[in-house]
Design goal:
By secondary structure, the chain is of the alpha+beta class. It contains eleven helices and twelve strands. It has three domains: 40 residues, SHC Adaptor Protein; 89 residues, Phosphorylase Kinase, domain 1; 187 residues, Orthogonal Bundle (Transferase(Phosphotransferase), domain 1), CATH 1.10.510. The protein has a five-stranded antiparallel beta sheet, with helices on one face. A three-stranded antiparallel beta sheet has the order 3-4-5. Strands 1-2 form a two-stranded antiparallel sheet. The protein binds adenosine-5'-triphosphate.
């Protein structure tokens, strides 16, 4: 990953079996060190000469707010100071907060009665164990009284949906879009491996940090809410029907494959810079027509291979949808191609 005038570019360092390292086959190196040294001295085909190694600005991979919270992560709410409101969702509000006067955190405050504390705590025990660079880390909770607080890492640029809508393609390039999709696939393939289901994957539930870093948020929360029937299917306004696989609409059957369906919709959101899926249809029409086989057409300026990936995620037979692992390697494979062709107009549909 190279930062060129504020834009992130990707190069894949490759290695031949027992052979040298290279970015371009025309110049090979016996060690990684000599490769880095060479490109630090001259760009030699890269977009820019290598400068300083990337500073890790993101919150560290904290396993909890402190040693204490590792086992005992119900924390006293007086240690949390809410600083400013970042946004609001269906179930409550999100604040930027400070823990113990030192650590920046995000605090999700849940509307009173929106979930059962015990049920949530059971889910949170699992969520806390799910640690991955592309998943929002759950730090701690306050469940002793309402409103319940969920304390997580803070992401500077808010939700991916807002981020895409604000940019509208002015600074984000096609390779950035692929990179963001790959990061979500990476977080999701970890959940897949853990046999965990997200249930509400959408651009609004992916958060963005610096340098387009994306992490999947709110995994598993929908299940806890659903017990309360807040996500009641019949009430089309509350259920995220446009992200929902047909088998969920029909039989309430949530699996990792229904998450794959939602990932296809998320790809659509990424490629359209946050357009509402099925823009010309009402929720009712979506519920009626998608299980009957209706699918969105290829968005404008969307490369064929990306649209193809979406339609694979939207296979009516859930077992035929790809795994997140496959989606991840296919997206990552894109960076294997010649870098100069990434944003090539010829790639587009
Ligand atoms: P829903 O409740 O229907 O899932 P939502 O995901 O938009 O909707 P929230 O999860 O409550 O609602 O988040 C509301 C907003 O708060 C987000 O859109 C985002 O801008 C901001 N936000 C949430 N979590 C964080 C975080 N960890 N760091 C920074 N901003 C956040």
């Amino acid at each position: 990953m190279v930062l060129d005038n504020g834009r992130v570019k990707h190069y894949k360092v490759k290695k031949l079996d027992n052979g040298p390292y290279f970015v371009s086959k025309t110049r090979t190196f016996s060690t990684l060190k000599t490769l880095v040294q060479h490109y630090s001295e001259q760009a030699d085909g890269l977009c820019v000469r290598l400068g300083e190694p990337c500073k890790k600005n993101e919150a560290p991979q904290t396993y909890g707010l402190s040693y204490n919270t590792v086992d005992q992560w119900e924390i006293d709410r007086s240690t949390i100071k809410l600083l400013r409101k970042l946004g609001a969702g269906q179930f409550g509000e999100v604040f930027e907060g400070l823990w113990n006067g030192t650590t920046s955190v995000a605090v999700k405050t849940l509307k009173n009665g929106s979930m059962d504390a015990e049920d949530f705590l059971r889910e949170a025990q699992i969520m806390k164990r799910l640690r991955h660079a592309k998943l929002i880390q759950l730090y701690a909770v306050c469940t002793m009284e309402e409103p319940i607080y969920i304390i997580t890492e803070l992401m500077k640029n808010g939700s991916l949906l807002e981020y895409l809508q604000k940019d509208k393609g002015s600074t984000l390039s096609f390779s950035d879009q692929i990179e963001m999709a790959a990061q979500v696939a990476s977080g999701m393939s970890f959940l897949e491996l853990q046999n965990y289901i997200h249930r509400d994957l959408a651009a609004r539930n992916v958060l963005v940090g610096e340098n387009n870093i994306c992490k999947v948020a709110d995994f598993g929360l929908a299940r806890v809410f659903m017990n309360e029937n807040v996500y009641e299917i019949k009430d089309g306004t509350k259920f995220p029907v446009r992200w929902t696989a047909p088998e969920v609409i029909r039989y309430n059957k949530f699996t990792i494959k229904s998450d794959v369906w939602s990932f296809g919709i998320l790809l659509y959101e990424i490629m359209t810079f946050g357009q509402m899926p099925y823009p010309t249809m009402t929720n009712y029409q979506v519920i009626q027509q998608v299980p009957e086989g209706h699918r969105m057409s290829c968005p404008l300026k969307c490369p064929k291979f990306m649209y193809h990936m979406m339609t694979e995620c939207w296979n009516g037979k859930e077992q035929e949808r790809p795994t997140f692992e496959t989606l991840l390697w296919r997206l990552e494979d894109y960076f294997e191609q010649d870098v100069s062709s990434y944003d090539d107009a010829n790639n587009f549909h």
